[in-house]
Amino acid sequence: MASLPLLPPPSPATVRFPACVSSPMTKVSSSTCGPSSSNNIKKREYFSNSNAILPLSLKNSSSWDELYEIQAHSIKANAIEDEVIFSKFFALCNSSRSLDLDFAKKNFFSLPHRNSLFWITLINGYAQSPLPETSILLFVKLLEEDSFLLCPHIVPPLLKACVKLSAFFEGAQIHSLATKCGMVVDSYVQNSLIQVYFGCGWPFVAQLLFDKMPARSVVTWNCVIAGYSELGLWEKVISLFWMMIEEALVEPNLVTFVRVVTACSKSDDFDSGKKIYRYIVENGVSLSLNLGNALMNMFMKFGDIKLARELFDELPMPDVVSWTTLITGYSRVGRIREAHEVFDRMPDRSIVTWNAIIAGYILNGLFKNAVLLYKEMLVLDLKPDKSTFLSVLSACAKSEDLPAGKVIHAYISKVGIDIALDLIHSILGLYTKCGEMNMAELLFRKMKVLNEISWTLMMTGYVRCGQIEVAMKIFNKMPKKDIASWNALITILAQNNHSFEALNIFEDMMRMKVTPNSLTLVSSLSCCAKIGALDLGKWIHFYIKRNDFKIDAQLSASLIDMYAKCGCIELSLEVFYRTPRKDLIVWSTIIRGLAMHGQSKLAFIIFKQMEDSGLQPDAITFLGVLSACNHSGFLEEGYHYFDKMSKVYGISPTVEHCSCMVDLLGRLGLLQQAKDFINRMGITSRSEAIWGALLAACKLHGDIMLAEYAVNMLLELNPTNSGAYVLLSNIYAKNSKWNCMRTVRILMKGKGIKKIPGFSSIEVNGGVHEFFVGDYSHSQSADIYMVLDGLEKLSKKCEYFID
After folding, report:
1. Would the pTM count as exceeding 0.85?
2. What digits encode the pLDDT tens for the residues 279-317?
3. Nearest to 441 by CA among 423, 421, 452, 455
4. Helix (H, G, I), strand (E, B) or coil at 91
5. How many CB atoms are closer than 10 A to CB 33?
6. Running DSSP on this structure, what letter comes out for residue 417?
7. Exposed e or buried b per residue across 60-80, where buried means at least 16 C-beta atoms within 10 angstroms of its C-beta
8. Which parts are the PPR repeats (predicted)?
């Protein structure tokens, strides 16, 4: 039987032959072969002498021209009918590119006889291509032509195509056919069926199939674990892991460990994470790059920086993910200096790493540094991506650096970057955060697509500008109000000290039967904490219990903070002890609450318990501990924790930490030590908060000379600081220096500086009442001041001094 050519008739439009081949069936003369004709003649002679060299030549083929040439020689030598040679040729041209697949399919259907191997190869190629539906059509063609060619190896690629197409019905049909033909007993087919049911969103069917399997290998367990991982059911992944090693006695492999460690990170299950790591160490599991990166990420997320760094040092060849994980971990716990040192040590920095260090600076509130890093990228001729722009625009918005933000906006427009909706929202957020509402309105009107985020950004911008009525009009105009819109309005009102308005919106939301989520409750509890609305805070806590809300770490911390600020530290402790999974925020919040209530020793005990649990404190945690020392006058403990913060945990003291130490020294009357401490801090001393703390201590102890020095430093930093003038005036009055006090008051009046009035709030019978200094607006103000005068007279009789 004469062999048929695998290629279509030669024409420039369909087939590209090398210069030395005119067609598959014509002889080639040396005059047409060009400079490399001698090599090609030797190659053809070798092919004609031995068909055994063809598979090797196909394997070593490096270009399509060579492939065409080899195919032509195989046809000439009558070797194309050899199934081994044709299979290797077919597999080589069966790539994921649609043009190559079409070429393979044409050659395939030109064959007089097609076996199972050829069908499997072509179906598998299309299953992995952007055209997976073709593999299913080919399978139907196979059933029509010769169903006896069916074999178990043809089922997995078909099921893979069903996963890509989310074709549950077709997958179920293939499952039925495989069962009918007895192919479902094959473990490879069973694993593929599990994958297709998970991939099509039917996990209970996959679990049922898994449960009925008589024998389950580690690959099968990994298929089920991977399926639940893709669905985000992390607790199920962890329970399957322990079932795998304890009940089924199947030894997990590296793929299993990577999946389950990732599940611990995603579910915030640090206890399971530590147990799994202990299992890895005790069983001598080799640390692959992927497993090392997964473990590093987990320990970094849970604050165990030391162990994460040890894992990094154990990696023989850290990749970009390893370095980036280390940078992100250091940034997350406030150790940005060490994060930058790691960044500087990197041998090769990708755009992902640059984005990580920029995000780290933003996370630590160093917005100007983040913008400087962006400028350094441009100097180094590195091309920023969308993530870079999203980060630096966020930095400009948070620092309210409008000029830099405008430059970045202009650069994006000039370069012609495809501005996606999230990038437009970042630019819009920049203008609304900086109060540039004219530019925001202009951009808003030009937007072709408006969604809830667009409307919410405009609404929050007007709230920040104090135009609450305009913000409410925008909120009412929104075509669709989802829970995110309600949350945004409540949150932005709370952040801009409009707590009463925020709680009114929350009550409106509840009246309209809009179901709140965790963020709604967190923002509302924050407002209750600010104005002391204990009854409403208790009602929200009751609502959480009644509706079976999952009390996560953030919601738990909000409840602890609310009860502490409303004077119920016992209820704060009750919530704290009932929180099953305590993260760093929960620990820090209860420590700060105990410090506020003067229970410093208990705060120290809980701080020690936190360290023993494996969590490493951050800058906020230490601020709470130092506040505890401050409220109780524990100077030795204050120095101990202040030194421990930098020497043990590598956390650089912030302005707040230094102010706390100055306040502690000042309360104890150690004013000169406080001044010396400020001078030792160097650049940190250039802060109003630190000099304000020293000035308050001077008022307490009547040190006029040091007070005048502190005021001069304060006014050098901010000439319009009304608090500095008022405190100095009060110090002069306390020491009967009336002329000096009058001079300060005249100076304030001459400069047009007015004291910002303070206010207090009190909850009575479920209603919160707000009072400013000298406020007579309350309907019962006459009765209130009568009681206040009575209390003042009573206190004087008891010889209490009222300042």
Report:
1. no
2. 999 998 888 899 999 999 999 888 888 899 999 988 888
3. 455
4. helix
5. 17
6. -
7. ebeeeeebbbbbbbbbbbebb
8. 217-251, 253-287, 319-353, 451-485, 583-617
